[in-house]
Design goal:
A hairpin with a 5-residue loop joins strand 1 (about 30-35) and strand 2. The chain starts with a helix and ends with a strand. The strands form 4 sheets. The chain has an 8-stranded antiparallel beta sheet with strand order 6-5-4-3-2-1-12-13, with helices on one face. Strands 7-8-9-10-11 form a 5-stranded antiparallel beta sheet, with no helix packed on it. A 4-stranded antiparallel beta sheet has the order 17-16-19-20, with no helix packed on it. It is built from 2 helices and 20 strands. It has helices at about 1-20, 220-225, and strands at about 30-35, 45-55, 60-65, 80, 85-90, 95-100, 110-115, 125-140, 140-155, 160-170, 170-175, 190-200, 205-210, 230-235, 240-245, 250-255, 260-270, 270-275, 280-290, 295-300. It folds into 2 domains: about 25-225, no CATH class; about 230-304, Immunoglobulin-like (Sandwich), CATH 2.60.40.1930. It is about 5% helix and about 50% strand. The protein is mainly beta.
Length: about 300
């Protein structure tokens, strides 16, 4: 018995040594995201925290704890990093799936399998993530690789859907850590992420993206007005911005810079996409004027 206990202790020691230096999800790390609600003007925040270690199938993982969760979206309670790749545990299959690989270059990709509370019975959701391009950024004095990616559903029974986002080496996907939601439709009558507000960990320090005035509460008037009828994602964006209305009506959408200049103006029926690939990096306002009702608007960050 003592020999068995000693062997277990040695395994835990070796595994702990392997993960002490990992750059992603150290103990104490915390992500904050804006939280919007369909059919409501309420705005709140979501948080994901790394609260400790957990052993799953002999793999030492970081344990994730949530302050609220998104509807229609996959969540995992355990992740680990190995050779710059991050994996998440999927309990339904009792396996680990690749969340992202920071070694990937433009043209590379990976497939992720997951399931949500609205996934079709007996059907797993699957996306193919393609790296469109890469760059380097520096945050808090830390050089990080940035990947501009696109998500593509590969389930033939689902409608074609592609959405883009950004993955930073330390932060993960800046739209939401698990930017994996059911691809059976793009409208989800639940809460959804408005993008990363803040990230912090003991080594990296504290970082604000600027899409909200606070990590944990709302103060800016544009955050609490008129989000009840539209969904704008991803945010931040770099190529395409998807806009979905919760009601089937025509509307006009405008993209306005901080000097009040209208950069894009078009009428559409939901859903639609705005091409922002030629828009400079910065903070903008998306204004939606539906055929009925009042104008609605939200803040949008665009990356080059």
């Amino acid at each position: 018995m003592r020999i068995k206990q000693l062997m277990i202790s040695m395994i835990m020691f070796v595994l702990a040594g392997q993960t002490q230096a990992q750059g992603f999800a150290p103990i104490g790390a915390q992500w904050h995201y804006t939280e919007y609600f369909s059919f409501s003007i309420q705005v709140s925040f979501l948080s994901i925290s790394v609260t400790g270690d957990t052993l799953i199938n002999d793999q030492l993982c970081r344990k994730l704890t949530y302050k609220d969760q998104l509807g229609c979206t996959f969540h995992s309670e355990a992740v680990y990093e190995e050779d710059s790749a991050v994996y998440y545990y999927m309990p339904q299959l009792d396996t680990f799936q690749l969340l992202f690989d920071m070694k990937a270059m433009a043209g590379d990709g990976w497939t992720s399998i997951f399931i949500t509370d609205i996934s079709s019975p007996g059907q797993y959701d699957t996306v193919r993530v393609i790296v469109d391009s890469t760059s380097q950024i520096v945050i808090n004095g830390h050089p990080l690789k940035r990947m501009f990616v696109s998500y593509h559903n590969v389930n033939p029974d689902y409608q074609t859907l592609t959405y883009s986002s950004i993955i930073d080496g330390k932060l993960g996907d800046i739209s939401y850590l698990f930017n994996l939601y059911s691809l059976s439709g793009i409208i989800c009558d639940a809460n959804y992420s408005g993008g990363l507000r803040c990230y912090q960990d003991p080594e990296f320090g504290f970082y604000e993206t600027g899409i909200a005035d606070s990590c944990e509460y709302t103060t800016a008037i544009h955050e609490i007005q008129g989000i009840n009828n539209m969904r704008v994602f991803p945010n931040p964006a770099f190529k395409l911005v998807n806009i979905v209305l919760n009601t089937p009506e025509q509307a006009e959408v405008k993209l306005i810079d901080q000097q009040g200049r209208v950069l894009i103006s078009q009428r559409f029926e939901s859903p639609t996409s705005l091409d922002v690939s030629n828009i400079d990096t910065g903070i903008y306002v998306v204004v939606l004027s539906p055929s009925s009702g009042k104008c609605q608007y939200t803040k949008l960050i665009i990356y080059e």
